[in-house]
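Subject: complex prediction, re-run

Hi both,

The earlier run crashed halfway through, so I resubmitted it with identical inputs.
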Amino acid sequence: MTADYGGGGGYSRTSYGAAGGDDAGGFVYGGSQGGSQGGGRASGEESLRPVTIKQIIDAEQAYQDAPFRIDGVEVSQVTFVGMVRNISPQTTNITFKLDDGTGLIEVKQWLDADKDDSGKPQFQLDQYVRVWGRLKSFNNKRHVGAHVIKPVADFNEVNYHLLEATYVHLFFTKGAKTDANGQSNGNTGDNDSMFVDDGNSGNGANDDKVRHCSMNAKKFFNWLQHAEGGNEGIHLNLIAQGAKLSVNDAMAAAEELFGTGVVYTTIDDETFAILDY
Amino acid sequence: MEPISTPRISGQIIGSFVGRNVMIVGKVLQLRGEEAVIEANGHVTANLNREAHLTPGNGVQIIGKVNNDLSIKVMSSVDLGNNVDFTVSQAVVDATHQYPDLFVYAN
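This time it finished cleanly. Structure:
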């Protein structure tokens, strides 16, 4: 299977998938991807996203059991911090209520009857903890199924986390900072962006054209830019496959890029090439 | 799952939050019985509850209601030790109000 997170203690997707049932079935989102069973899941969906609790509560779900979306991006694995407000031991799990100042959410840590859990850390009320887990919905009630809960040893991690969640939100809504040296300036100014917009990106002028586009539009553009036969144009489905986007996302990206005049349609309405001038 | 926020604020913007529950991270300047003065980008007077155990010079996180005189009626307080980077706390306060979608439910 896909997921063996190097640093995170090696959760394999099979074990959690079987328990949650949300991996069942090969329903292809968007429909028209030529027979790629289960290929409808966007590539970013299994990546770990730092979030605030308000973002979890506000995460959209198109219908029951649909994937969760934050900022229009599919998300299931999240990490966040919060203060323990309530601990309620159940027969099969321990349910925590966590509060990070932005909202309150329930976190369930499942108990393994075969394992001795006495070695697990015990938590106190009002203590800050960090959770790594998966978004779940049960009886229309949202909670996080925790893989790991650890105490926050250094309070600065709380502030760091909230800024990181902001950074990732801006990354998905405003796009990555092209000068990818990863530095965020403490965001103390009135500047609308957290990132220094100094333009010395060292990438070509082409990347400049998509600097203010969405992540998906950038993926679309970058793949198309390096694809062969780009002059005659490439069909939307091929671009979606190559750029690892769902067809719907690729369509939205194409519309966005078309609207700003970065790409144009060639032999039909679904075949795109980069507009070079 | 409850949409209730205690937005992180500083002494500078406390005037806009009268009557609301807020969260403040700052440094304990003075302790006088049931009252503490906290530096959080401006001085804030906190009316403590019995459970509060603050240490002058240490960082503290308080959650409480902003009174009409801009003091805070503390509901909970956590001693944060002496290793708190207050510039980062202030950055979080700034981000909170610049991007309320991520941080604050209007209530």
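Residues 178 and 208 of chain A are 8 Å apart (CA to CA).

- K.
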